[in-house]
């Protein structure tokens, strides 16, 4: 029962994570004034880059975006109507959209990647690193394609650190009696809130 429930929770986490990072990519594409093709490429790399690298490292086949073709179709439609999608998410089309969507995607993909690695039977620390890779690599690709120094490298505010700590928290929660959905929500919120708090109060890591 718990396995079935966990799989259902992870499926919805994956959908929300893809949507969040896709919006993040579309927001960056709009800021760069890219056309629909450019918007699709940026959104694709943002939404699927981290998960693809995770699947390569864990030797998972087929890749999750090949197994779920509907993700690609939805992303294609979103790219065609990028302006409308962003307005639907927020009336204020600014860097704030990118930051919030990126934080949500960071949390969701971090938890998802960690759980998939645990399911594959890899050690706890490696599972946490898979969560961080899933969460952070797509954003890194987005910034590289858009000719920017990746946020992961230039931003002294904790980014991968938030994902790392949140993924460790999630592993700990899986060893409690909490429902899988509750563990997912707690760990995801910890990452998202942690990221936004560090930005709001300008908390930085030492150089």
TrEMBL record:
Alphabetical keyword list: Cell membrane, Membrane, Transmembrane, Transmembrane helix
Annotated transmembrane regions: 6-27, 34-51, 71-90, 97-118, 124-145, 157-173, 179-198
Protein localization: Cell membrane
Database matches in Pfam families: Gly_transporter (PF03458)
Domain annotation Glycine transporter: ranges: 12-82, 100-174
Major subcellular location class: membrane
Membrane topology note: Multi-pass membrane protein
Similarity comment: Belongs to the UPF0126 family.
Name this protein carries in UniProt: Trimeric intracellular cation channel family protein
Lineage of the organism: Bacteria, Pseudomonadati, Pseudomonadota, Betaproteobacteria, Burkholderiales
